[in-house]
Design goal:
Blueprint (H helix, E strand, L loop, with lengths): L4 H18 L2 H12 L2 E2 H8 L3 H13 L3 E6 L2 E6 L2 H14 L5 E2 L5 E2 L4 E2 L1
Antiparallel strand pairs: 1-3, 2-3, 4-5, 5-6
Helix pairs in contact: 2-5
Length: 118
């Protein structure tokens, strides 16, 4: 499979900005939970073990970049991943980094149930 370098050049800046938004432990963990289902701010606050103020800043950053969408139901706000590419990325990250124990093969590569990494 040949990579379309012109598309890569066109999308590189936008992709880098999206990856920068994801590059925080709390945001990544939140996305892992949201990859499974829509959750309220209160649910996210509980599972992430952070304050509502801190969580709101993280959610706003992801929402402003089009990664998350939200809806209101009464006095609750629910979030979900709005960008299908981010859903795929989160699933890939889970497969690579959240799988079972890593083992090293004869070539020095570590492997999990989800794949092989250097």
């Amino acid at each position: 499979m040949k990579t379309d370098l012109s598309a890569l050049r066109t999308n590189a800046h936008a992709t880098a900005e999206k990856l920068k938004a994801l590059a925080h432990g709390t945001r990544l963990l939140g996305l892992c939970y949201l990859g499974e289902r829509e959750m309220s701010v209160q649910e996210l606050e509980t599972v992430l073990g952070t304050t509502q103020s801190n969580l709101s800043q993280h959610l706003a950053k992801l929402r402003d970049r089009g990664i998350l969408a939200c809806r209101r139901e009464g006095n609750r706000v629910y979030y979900r991943i709005a960008d299908p590419d981010v859903v795929e990325l989160v699933l890939a990250l889970q497969r690579i980094f959240c799988a079972g124990p890593r083992t090293e093969d004869a070539h020095g590569l570590t492997s999990t149930q989800g794949g092989t990494t250097p």
